[in-house]
Amino acid sequence: MQLSAQELDAVSLAKLGDEARMLLCAGDIDTLATRFGYALAYDRHPADAIREELASSLAEAGASRLIATGWQPPRVGYFKQNDTGLFALVESLVPTENGASILVEVIVAGSGTNAHATLEQVSAAV
């Protein structure tokens, strides 16, 4: 997802984290994949990869479903200036019915008018 320079502050990036986890929690994986892509898709279609990662993460956490309440605010961290182009990481936790959590990570690469947000990973929070 292309971002403007005005969308790179912590409040705006936290909203992206909320959007990603809301789509995941609502089961709207196709929209999530279309909006954010999936960095770990490899040779799979992004939506299929997200579904597989979510199923694997839920199994690892011993859970069967996500809960759409009780969310903590996303954590936004910025990388020191580097040669990789990594700019920020947004981490959001989604609780499950058994008290575990699934971690949703959005990575921002680039800067200014050349910044992009991508769903980096869905994993069991351990």
Q: Report the sheet with the most strands, covering strand number, pairing sense and barrel closure.
A: 5 strands, antiparallel
Which of globular, elongated, flat, extended, rod-shaped describes the shape? globular
Which blocks of ≥5 consecutive residues have pLDDT under 50? none
Q: Helix tally?
A: 3
Tally the structural domains. Answer: 1
Q: Report the order of strands and helices.
A: EHHHEEEE
The fraction of residues in strands falls at: 25-35%
Radius of gyration: 14 Å
Strand tally is 5
* Overall pLDDT metric: 94
Structural class, from secondary structure content?
Answer: alpha+beta
**Distance between termini?**
28 Å
Query: How helical, in percent, are the residues?
Result: 25-40%
Give the strand order of the largest sheet, numbering strands 1, 2, ... along the chain.
1-5-4-3-2
Question: Strands, helices and their partners?
Answer:
Elements: E1 2-3, H1 10-25, H2 29-36, H3 46-61, E2 75-78, E3 86-95, E4 101-109, E5 115-124
Antiparallel strand pairs: 1-5, 2-3, 3-4, 4-5
Can you put this structure into words, describing what you see?
It is a single chain. The protein is of the alpha+beta class. The chain has one domain (2-124). The protein contains three helices and five strands, in the order βαααββββ. The chain has helices at residues 10-25, 29-36, 46-61, and strands spanning 2-3, 75-78, 86-95, 101-109, 115-124. The protein has a five-stranded antiparallel beta sheet with strand order 1-5-4-3-2. Strand 4 and strand 5 (115-124) form a beta hairpin. Helix 2 (29-36) crosses helix 3. The longest helix is centred in the N-terminal third of the chain and has 16 residues, at 10-25. It starts with a strand and ends with a strand. The mean pLDDT is 94.
